Amino acid sequence: MKKITLYLLGIIVTIVVGTYFYLSCCSYCGIITQKEAPKEKIVSKPPLPKTTSYPFDFSDGDFAYTTQDNFNFKTSTFDYLEPVSENVRNGILPGLKNHLTSNEQKVMNITGYYTSDEHNSSAFPNLGLARANAVKNYFVSQEIPSSQINIGAKLMDDMVPDKAIYKGPIGYSIEEVSANAEDKIKALYDKITGDPLILYFDTAEASINPSAEQRQKIADIAQYLDKVEKAKCQIVGYTDSQGSRKTNMRLGQERADFAKDYLMQNGISDNRIKADSKGPKDPIASNNTKEGRAKNRRTVITIK
Fold first, then answer.
1. Which of 18, 34, 184, 300 sits at 20 to 30 Å (Cα–Cα) from 260?
2. For the segment 248-281, what is each residue's pLDDT rounded down to a tens digit?
3. pLDDT at 47
4. What's the CA gap between 267 and 143, in Å, rounded?
5. Number of other residues whose CB lies within 10 A of the CB of residue 145
6. 160 conformational bin, left if phi > 0, alpha if psi -120 to 50, beta if neither
7. Cα 174 versus chain centre, distance
């Protein structure tokens, strides 16, 4: 009996001691493991910038109109998305048209917004001006005189697109015609005719890639045509003296027509442009040298 008791006591002691060491060691191991286990870093994503949206909004004394709809544009483009909102159309006709018709000394200013990281494929110095010009042409299609519309541009690098679409990157205001408006038009005429836009072409080619200075001249021409109803944009294509006269007359016309199409694609109306060819006539340099012939292969764009 004594042996059985001692045997049972040994079993109990073994269980107690084993339990003690198990709890002590495993708890310690658990602590070590918990301390040594790398903590997962929680990286918080910065909040997405809020999409910008500009209303179709203008006022002049008691006359005012506003709607959250506006002309929208894809990024890096200057053609507004269609269809134009009904709310925008309702603001133009009859309200804005009647207001400007009744107040001939008032002008609508249309300002196009753009960002510095957009690609400008227009004929204008920047996408803002190209967008404003596109909207201006829509206004003109709604029988608002272009002579009562001014266009401008504003760099807006804080604009945020909605899925690659800028919502309403156009601003509007109405003001009095400036007192020296006629003097400005005369100065613009002198500027264009005194230093006409000249585009140069490679041999037998008819393509253009205007520089920043040339784009500004195109903008000046578009502005003058807007303000002077009977004015025309005159395009004349020239060639060097290489080849037959018939071929050169055709090539000069192709170059003039190419320039005309380019201007039309950028919002200058077909009926405001006249394109002709003079072929090898009226050279501005000697055709006996490579450099001289390069200067003679040109298209001259001015106004008349």
1. 184
2. 999 999 999 999 999 999 999 999 999 999 999 9
3. 74
4. 16
5. 17
6. beta
7. 23
